[in-house]
């Protein structure tokens, strides 16, 4: 948590509990305890962390098994971060603090801008490095410098080594590529063509790019979780040797998942959107 947020919360003298807050804290604590027990049992039967280290065994797996194994490793890392930060957050709420929330579920990540497993460090980097140097993020040089400095500090924090260098390079590239492609499609004539397509067709085309982006996120982050050899094998099998059947089928399933996630996010945004105020005449009639 950044110091300004922490200071504002600790100096607040009006400490009150929201409705059903203690019930929510208790339910979260029980949920985290249940997840810890389930993961502990799974570790005795599912060897998702040790299988990638045996390249002879991994080489015999099918394309779908490799894709599932790579995805499962990211899910494990997300669960570890979600439980670790979730337990701390649950305890912190007992002291009337509002700490950063646990990381966003890996299944719902299809953009590099939201790919972080620690919201606190992400907020700190954005405030003091990325947004401070990048400004409005409209200039190419300043944006490149901002992302370079951000990932340089992240590399030092993770511990400089070959895998961390590769992880930082690919994620820095992915973030910049995603940003400038989005800005390019916001300019005419591409923006004009998208308007003529209609909302449904535009959503489908964006879903295809998001599905490919999702697997880029998986492959780039498998580097830091497993090994370079495992990441290269998964990429080679999914992109080259598995083309077209494995590649297109995996992308098709991912595309459907991305569309479901985007629809859920759209519905949540509609629910959170404030209702427009009624005119005075309409209020009088309703009364």
Automatic annotation (TrEMBL):
Lineage, broadest ranks: Eukaryota, Metazoa, Chordata, Craniata, Vertebrata
Q: What is its main location?
A: endoplasmic reticulum
Which domain of life does the protein's organism represent?
Eukaryota
Which UniProt keyword terms apply here? Endoplasmic reticulum, Membrane, Transmembrane, Transmembrane helix
Residues annotated as transmembrane: 29-48, 140-158, 207-226, 238-258
Instruction: Tell me which family the UniProt entry assigns to this protein.
Output: Belongs to the membrane-bound acyltransferase family. HHAT subfamily.
Q: What topology in the membrane does the UniProt record assign?
A: Multi-pass membrane protein
Q: What is this protein called?
A: Uncharacterized protein
Q: Where in the cell is it found?
A: Endoplasmic reticulum membrane
What GO cellular component is one of the record's annotations? endoplasmic reticulum membrane
Q: Would the keyword DNA repair turn up in this protein's UniProt record?
A: no
| GO MF annotation list | acyltransferase activity
